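Hi everyone,

Forwarding the result from last night's run.
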Amino acid sequence: MNYLMGIDIGTSGTKTIVINENGQLKASAFVEHKLDCPKPGWAQQNPQEWWNAAVESIKQVLKNGHLKGSDIKGIGLSGQMHGLVLIDDKFNILMPAILWCDQRTAKECEEINEKIGIDKLNEYTCNPALTGFTAPKILWVRKHLPKIYKKIYKILLPKDYIRFKLTGVFASEVSDASGTLLFDVKNRKWSKEMLNALDIDKNKLPKVYESPVISGYITSAIAKETGLLEKTPVVGGGGDQAAGAIGNGIVKPGIISVTIGTSGVVFAHTDKIKMDKLQRVHSFCHAVPEKWHIMGVMLSAGGSFQWFKNNLGNNLKYDILTKEAQKIPVGSEGLIFLPYLMGERTPHKDPYAKGVFFGITMRHTKAHFTRSILEGVTYGLRDSLEIIRGMNLKIKQIRASGGGAKSKFWRQIQADVFNSEIVTINISEGPAFGVALLAGVGVKIYKSVEEACEKTIRITSHTYPIKNNVQKYEEYYKLYNSLYPALKDKFSSRL
């Protein structure tokens, strides 16, 4: 039996899985990371912790799966997107990695917009300048930490640092590179125009591959350290969202995924590059060769619920909180939650946006607040869904994934707010599963990414919208949409 490994460097931890060629899970391991927030709006991690977690999780899956290194025919890498990893010419980490949800680069984004212009940004990268993206982080380091900037030998994304540690190769792939604001998404290569305009040396960036292409091989030293076999192929892999989309079978038009993890993502496949003229959603290269995707991103989706659970929910288990929330009427009796705890990307592009509970009365209880958070996050996801619908992308099916998909209650809220059937699939391993499939394509176990998905993924449940709920949510969604414009100017207040 052929086995494939997927390694996902997430924000909360590293997940490593092994599957067989039929997509059946052989073993899985998860090792947590610490998140450091030294200042308001800042988010960073130590890449060494990712590496420690990767090594530990690899050892665990080999041991738990009773596998030898020679059983693993290929390895795929996924990771949190946009993070900035800087190393010097001796391959030392220069500073903590600045993460996707970090908001410190608002001024750098303004500078990029002024220097290049929004229209040119669209032409060069198909995307706007956002605080989460990598390029503004590089400019921030140059401005605020010039001594560190001068020492930079390579600029890497999180999963690509792990690739380097595994293979000794500096490489990336098109889906993750698309989120740097340094990548020509249309032509699937680094953008000369962006690099020249921002005065960033292309030699500091890694070589870019298509996602299923072999980018390197396990070194002898790492084979000894992990138990893997020397020269095991490592494919390009994918940014976590593109990789998760592969794991959800989002590889043809009409099928969309809604993923609720720490962040929230609406993801649509497209055979040709398409852009929103108002730049409210992202247009990136897909992990399927020569294909693209449209993506809307919320910064605080499941993260909003986690914040509530930890700080106001008495740390009660999810099931206990939602059991009580199910007793509350649709719309939480007028309590509306704006899920902007870390600013927002889609559709508002506002690093200053804040979380809000609107409409609180003496009648509202903890259960109301719980339900309003689930509803508010779903309203935010609908914002992206409506933009995608407006781009003439036909939606035949919505697949729910991530932690939000595990809750039948939350899936019903999604079906009602979106007025669409919600389905789940037999795969719950997300990006790690997706890159394991990409590894299978790279080592010729599957002929294509599409074939890999067809052979391994099937629908397991259907949730249909309830007509009365749909009508009620339509009115609450209108109220939700009226709140951000009314509060926008207040969010940026420095009082």
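The first strand starts at residue 3 and ends at 9.

Cheers,
N.
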